[in-house]
Amino acid sequence: MTLTSDLADTVATIRAEVAHLHAELPRWGLVVWTAGNVSARVPGHDLLVIKPSGVGYDELTPEAMVVCDLDGNLVDGDHSPSSDTAAHAYVYKHLPEVGGVVHTHSTYATAWAARGEPIPCVLTMMGDEFGGEIPIGPFALIGDDSIGHGIVETLRNHRSSAVLMQNHGPFTIGPTAKAAVKAAVMCEEVARTVHIARQLGEPIPIDPDKIVALYERYQNVYGQPEVTDR
Amino acid sequence: MTLTSDLADTVATIRAEVAHLHAELPRWGLVVWTAGNVSARVPGHDLLVIKPSGVGYDELTPEAMVVCDLDGNLVDGDHSPSSDTAAHAYVYKHLPEVGGVVHTHSTYATAWAARGEPIPCVLTMMGDEFGGEIPIGPFALIGDDSIGHGIVETLRNHRSSAVLMQNHGPFTIGPTAKAAVKAAVMCEEVARTVHIARQLGEPIPIDPDKIVALYERYQNVYGQPEVTDR
Amino acid sequence: MTLTSDLADTVATIRAEVAHLHAELPRWGLVVWTAGNVSARVPGHDLLVIKPSGVGYDELTPEAMVVCDLDGNLVDGDHSPSSDTAAHAYVYKHLPEVGGVVHTHSTYATAWAARGEPIPCVLTMMGDEFGGEIPIGPFALIGDDSIGHGIVETLRNHRSSAVLMQNHGPFTIGPTAKAAVKAAVMCEEVARTVHIARQLGEPIPIDPDKIVALYERYQNVYGQPEVTDR
Amino acid sequence: MTLTSDLADTVATIRAEVAHLHAELPRWGLVVWTAGNVSARVPGHDLLVIKPSGVGYDELTPEAMVVCDLDGNLVDGDHSPSSDTAAHAYVYKHLPEVGGVVHTHSTYATAWAARGEPIPCVLTMMGDEFGGEIPIGPFALIGDDSIGHGIVETLRNHRSSAVLMQNHGPFTIGPTAKAAVKAAVMCEEVARTVHIARQLGEPIPIDPDKIVALYERYQNVYGQPEVTDR
């Protein structure tokens, strides 16, 4: 398939953004080796841009990024797409408001996932970012729609932008790829902080009304007026 | 409002210092993404210089810093002030000896805050820097004076330069912004070390008289004669 | 011994690769000071290339690497070989499919080794990479064949590419040195994640059939077609 | 006091070495802010070279290092000596075989010190480096000979090159300053690894005879023939 000239320009911009955002994953300690990926929707098209499979973070140039359709088939690019592409594609297909998806095996979030235990909302920054607990998604094997289906069913009726897939690790979503990366960073940070709090006793719960107040203020007020990524 | 020429020079110097000090927060692992802020009082004026809201640490140039009055209103700058500005402003208004304030969600300090448990003074370096335990402040929502009030009421009668706001995280103060940053770094370090000590048993208490002796010696003797930031 | 001209070219290439791969050990936090080593088999010869003993990671040039025979004797190089050379050599001698060996004292893997407890397979990424639990090898003193023998006897009938030698630390193997380094990175990551999961309760087991499915898919499908190192 | 020309050359070399070695402390995560120091004996003179007090690691040039006598008095230099100088000086005065001393508050070692609990020897790398457990020294206040006395009395009859001063932190010694820095790095690493092992159960003890065998081999065989720092 050849991309039209207009679309090629858009895709080139998104490839550069997705390549650039991958550098945030090792920067914040979310990944080892090649184990994590960022994707972005191509607005107005049934396409996404994602990391190639098994390529190191040092080699992730814009040109190395691949373009796939929303069934996960390769449309443009010199490499095989990430083996998690089907899950990303499923999310874009079923959650039209999502513009970016991130998957990592970040340590503390994955530890909660291994126990199948949601992270309780006991931090104001967790209320700000996630509006409540971070939920657990089902155990699902790679190879068909199971992972994507599990993500969508868990997040569809939830304020949280993160889901911990059981025995597997976190997936995060956002209106943009940058917002999804931020959610991945914050997910690991709250997973770590609540874990450490719990090691020496029980954290104090936050009143659910106050969690909602924190979430609504943060989503509407925080940041610079012109900034669209939360 | 236009700053007078003299004041503009002073503010430019403080903007550079505050921008520079923000680099210490990621350097010592105290913050992720944009979640932490440093401010400094403008000496002799009812003004403070603080980080803009939601701007990444890589973009924190001196020019990006904003000037606010002690009610938290923007006086000079191209960005919105940090959403924590009201709390910083309240501290400067009510504690005239304070020249700098720092707020982070550093992991171990925030974990103690989530349990609402003060950090006991079981390390000589904690006696040196904090003169005793690090206390807990009340749960308070952002949006009015509650956070600032909680900080001031907790620290007013305490040797500690750090307070852990319940379910939220640490605020630290100092005679200068650099001293407040140092207190933030040391607060996280003692929060981590005492946490780890407690994981395998009970730390040995230090006699209160000896804590006072450590504190008084350190505050008066340590460092170079010409250095004013502790 | 003088290397023939053809062999000298091959060895020069492998020396550069082994020197380069040593940089991955501090990069991923697997080693402190000089405590870890990577080796590669010289294909078609009873030779290996390994780190010299007690030399810092900053000084590991290709020229500093040493060539030994499969009894661990120095064949070419200006330094003494790593004190772990006998163990590496034993592995190459008895496991002909192995092209690379790595030894570290990475923190979490060594902690499991200190308790003599295998790491249970409760993470999908662990199924992918190791195909099941990571086993414990016997306690063995340095100085004769005991360590090499323990590694070979433990891994010979096991899917895992990593073994935790009791009270000592992990050894990993792979078809190439890069694959063995990847196994060392993943071994520490799963050791850390499962440790953290276990601190607050019991991880959920993964069905053994599903572990096999994950392993077989990953070993055959993952990565780029032209990439030989898994 | 003016140094003679010969001595000035020797001291300049040692100043450069001590300044350089300070960079290893933040590199291996042993210190925050300015809290740690390295010293070296001036061979053949009752003098030592040490870090100045309260100066950041970025500013530690050779010229900033100070020279003191073995009572801790300043002999040469533009800054006040480290507030720990008296302890270093006492060690050099009473242990003539010591050529370097390091003091840090490294996190895990300090956590053992807070409980007053020696680190048991359950790792082969601990047998190699320390020849047994790392002992606890007494609680001692800064300001007189108590800290130095506690270090010397604890280490005088011990194979260990590290002592954990109760509620305070580790001091390490070595034939050279570099060896003492290595001991500080290894002390924190074994403190961390044994802590983590103990979190989920009891480590397996190593037979005392085997610990001695490890220690004797490592101290005599490891490293390059020409290398003097272990």
From TrEMBL, chains A, B, C, D:
The keyword Cell inner membrane does not apply. SMART domains: Aldolase_II (SM01007). Transmembrane segments: none annotated. One of its GO terms (cellular component) is cytosol. The keyword Transcription regulation does not apply. Its EC number is 5.1.3.4. Its cofactor is Zn(2+). NCBIfam families: PRK06557.1. Belongs to the aldolase class II family. AraD/FucA subfamily. This is L-ribulose-5-phosphate 4-epimerase. It comes from Microlunatus phosphovorus (strain ATCC 700054 / DSM 10555 / JCM 9379 / NBRC 101784 / NCIMB 13414 / VKM Ac-1990 / NM-1). The gene is araD.
